[in-house]
UniProtKB/TrEMBL annotation:
<feature type="region of interest" description="Disordered">
    <location>
        <begin position="84"/>
        <end position="107"/>
    </location>
</feature>
<feature type="domain" description="LysM">
    <location>
        <begin position="243"/>
        <end position="289"/>
    </location>
</feature>
<keyword id="KW-0843">Virulence</keyword>
<comment type="similarity">
    <text>Belongs to the secreted LysM effector family.</text>
</comment>
<keyword id="KW-0732">Signal</keyword>
<dbReference type="InterPro" id="IPR052210">
    <property type="entry name" value="LysM1-like"/>
</dbReference>
<dbReference type="InterPro" id="IPR018392">
    <property type="entry name" value="LysM"/>
</dbReference>
<protein>
    <recommendedName>
        <fullName>LysM domain-containing protein</fullName>
    </recommendedName>
</protein>
<feature type="signal peptide">
    <location>
        <begin position="1"/>
        <end position="18"/>
    </location>
</feature>
<feature type="domain" description="LysM">
    <location>
        <begin position="154"/>
        <end position="200"/>
    </location>
</feature>
<dbReference type="InterPro" id="IPR036779">
    <property type="entry name" value="LysM_dom_sf"/>
</dbReference>
<keyword id="KW-0147">Chitin-binding</keyword>
<dbReference type="Pfam" id="PF01476">
    <property type="entry name" value="LysM"/>
</dbReference>
<dbReference type="GO" id="GO:0008061">
    <property type="term" value="F:chitin binding"/>
</dbReference>
<feature type="compositionally biased region" description="Polar residues">
    <location>
        <begin position="87"/>
        <end position="99"/>
    </location>
</feature>
Length: 372
């Protein structure tokens, strides 16, 4: 009898049942980044000062508790609920399709990347993840800079702290070539997208050995002041310069500013060709770091709270800072937050110049990581 009952139940048709799919959500991501090796959803979320639920909400489809450390995930953004009502979905038993029946392919949804508007060295809006194997037979990684040339055979991954100048120096290419191969970055490289792969070499191209841009020929004197000027020099350098700094292969604008105790504003004023973001610093040239009558900045400052503040500091740093963190050439925002056990919101509040996506983090400066 019992066996008969089981058999009868097993022969009953399997009734479908309805599930409610939640309403759609839109995520306006302000900053995305990749987890460290060995990270989990929980540790990654904690490192950025958010809950694991918030991480999941910012990244629909993320698979936890493990996390793909090669991917890029939104950690700062706004979530808005859509207007669509939940729709019932009928779920039934797995069906078997005869071999002669062709199943139509699923509709592919294409996501159009929103063009970034920031003017920082690295833009954090991530474009659509796209594989573009070009006609040259070379596999192109995804995602890529929009409009990248199809004959590219060498790529450079752009992290949130990558700068155009850093790419040029490392790959020994010129800004003109980089813009030619990645036209979406614009001529001033203000639209470099973080979380993408940029083209840094094409078929038949041979990188230069040391310089990123050909400097002007050597000059022996600067006009008017009678002081012997070493050459070659930065193009457009002021004529009343009386102190110079040789730009080596690894020299950075911030390193020059720190070493010669001058401001970035003065350095750009005396060497206008470097550009407002100092992205056109020419290797193998002499840059002006002092003019007749100028005096270097002092080395320390004591703000109103009486705490001795090391220099240089992040621009606009709060006055009540009591703990500082030196930003080296390899320091990242995420590592700093982990080490100091602070959130991105706190770090931005104390150092507003870094911006909410941390793209304004200056190397070789001291940032505030604690207040009274």
């Amino acid at each position: 009898m019992h066996l008969t009952t089981l058999l009868t139940v097993s022969l009953l048709p399997q009734l479908p049942y309805a599930l409610s799919i939640p309403s759609r959500r839109a995520v306006d991501c302000s900053f995305g980044t990749s987890p460290d090796s060995g990270a989990t959803c929980a540790t990654f979320a904690k490192a950025w000062g958010i809950s694991e639920d918030k991480l999941k909400a910012l990244n629909p489809g993320i698979k936890c508790p493990g996390i793909n450390t090669e991917g890029s995930y939104c950690v700062i953004g706004t979530i808005t609920d859509g207007d669509d009502e939940p729709s019932p979905t009928t779920v039934g038993p797995k069906s078997t399709v005869p071999a002669s029946t062709k199943v139509p392919p699923a509709t592919k949804t294409t996501t159009t990347a929103v063009k970034p508007t920031a003017v920082k060295p690295t833009v954090t809006q991530k474009p659509s993840t796209t594989k573009q194997p070009s006609g040259n037979g070379i596999k192109t990684p995804d995602a890529i800079q929009e409009g990248m040339v199809t004959n590219c055979n060498k790529f450079h991954y752009v992290s949130p702290t990558t700068s155009c100048q850093g790419i040029l120096n490392y790959n020994k290419i010129s800004l003109a070539d980089f813009v030619k191969w990645n036209p979406a970055v614009k001529s001033d490289c203000s639209q470099l997208w973080a979380g993408t792969n940029a083209c840094v070499g094409v078929i038949g191209f041979t990188p230069s050995l040391t310089t990123t841009t050909k400097p002007k020929p050597a000059t022996t004197t600067a006009k008017g002041n009678g002081i012997k000027t070493p050459g070659p020099i930065q193009e457009g350098m002021v004529s009343n310069c009386n102190k110079w700094h040789f730009v080596g292969e690894k020299t950075t604008c911030q390193g020059i500013v720190n070493y010669d105790k001058i401001t970035l504003a003065d350095f750009i004023k005396w060497n206008p060709a470097v550009g407002k973001d100092c992205s056109n610093l020419w290797k193998g040239t002499n840059a002006c770091v002092g003019v007749v009558g100028s005096k270097p900045n002092p080395t320390t400052t004591a703000p109103s709270n009486g705490i001795k503040t090391p220099l240089p500091i992040q621009e606009g740093m709060v006055k009540n800072c009591v703990t500082f963190h030196y930003i080296s050439s390899t320091t990242t925002c995420q590592a700093l937050l982990k080490y100091r056990k602070i959130t991105m919101e706190q770090f931005f509040k104390w150092n507003p110049a870094v911006t909410k996506d941390c793209s304004g983090l200056w190397k070789n400066t001291n940032a505030c990581v604690g207040v009274k």
